[in-house]
Target: Membrane protein
Amino acid sequence: MNQHLDQQEAGSLLLTDRDDPHPKHSLTAYLKFIIPSLIGILFFLTPIVVDGKVTIGMGVLADMLKEAAKDYLPAFATSLLVISALVSLYAALLKPRWTQRDSTLVEIFTPKGIWLWLRVVGAAFAAMTMFQVGPEWVWNRNTGGVMLLDLTPVLITFFFFAAILLPFLVDFGFMEFIGTLVRNVFRKIFRLPGRSSIDAVASWLGSGTVGVLITTQQYEQGFYSKREAAVIATNFSIASIAFSLLISSFIGLDHLFVPFYLTVVVAGLVAAIITPRLPPLCWKKDEYNESAGKQIKEELPNGHSLFSWGLEQAVRRAATAPSPGALGKTCLMNVTDIWFGLLPLVMAIGTVSLALTEYTPIFTWLSYPFIPLLELLQLPEAHAAAPTMLVGFADMFLPAVLGKGIESELTRFVVACVSLTQLIYMSEVGVLLLKSKIPLNLLELFAIFILRTLITLPIIALIAHTLVF
Model:
């Protein structure tokens, strides 16, 4: 995501000004940290139950908007994608004067190379699906229909509120406060800054895409190195409780949700410890975004406890928070970037991925090596389960779709758990990572996907055999 705030001043306050270990702050300074942070906690990190489902406040707002505008969102999404493609083509071919300016809006509408053509393809796929014209593999209900009618309305509404509310969580000191409290645990176990815990919690209670959004912004602001950002984005953008409940219900395991989700958590934690220590993630360098420089230093000064230093860091960060006007501009630009930049890529890559699944046996062929492994793990119906091990790279929901017909409850349990621990799927999170400035390419994402599958599959099978069934 693009970030339009000047974070250099914030970073200097975090790194310097330590002559007085206990500076005095006014009540207003503390309230500037506390009130916005509480708003962020309320909407992102506070689980609530609505109609029997666990969700978060931001999710409730997004669902309300989606429900109110559900009849119009596919057409709205198509309009956004077509406008994005036309403006981008106009800028690329005619190079009008406004494209020579250095601004975020120009950056959004002047994609280069393959990103431009993917934007055009996404718009074409959306229009073909909307009007059901052209090749059926594009507009079929199980390919382009899933992307335009099911996924884009969720992304439009979800990211609209995420862009508006996310600054309350990351720009007013809450990241600094929590990061300081848990930094020792995250450093020792995961070799990551403590503030990365917020990415994981926001994903857990909200959405994996929210976690990626936070990680991307923190990397661009200089709070994560290249290695840290790549590790966090691919290992801590976990599936939310709400989505996990949806998967368990869809595949017929809602009566086992507690052991199901605990299994996902255990396997995910093990993968988060092992995967970053293997290539390609271990090859990433601890270098910071060149445009921002390093903006974080988590050493504990003399005369401070973890709590007091976390509070001090939080108040200093809140003091440099953007004004309401600057905050509004940032939110507007982030929404624009998502709607006009991300949605076309999701539509293009997601439709092609689903078409390969629906119309070709490619995922079946690629999954053959998993059959002996599944048989070794004593999972019934190994041949039926094998394609689900790979199809999740296209979309996280596909393994549940393919695995629903498997008769063995044990195998369905393993399939569903593995799908939630793989994390990398191209219809949403993968595209978001490729579009970001985090140094990850398609081949690396696939390698991480395979690694996480091979690590979590035996763990989940062992738990299923010994503790659940």
Summary: Residues 1-19 have pLDDT under 50 and may be disordered. Residues 357-468 form one domain. The CA atoms of residues 73 and 153 lie 6 Å apart. Residues 324-359 form the longest helix (36 residues).
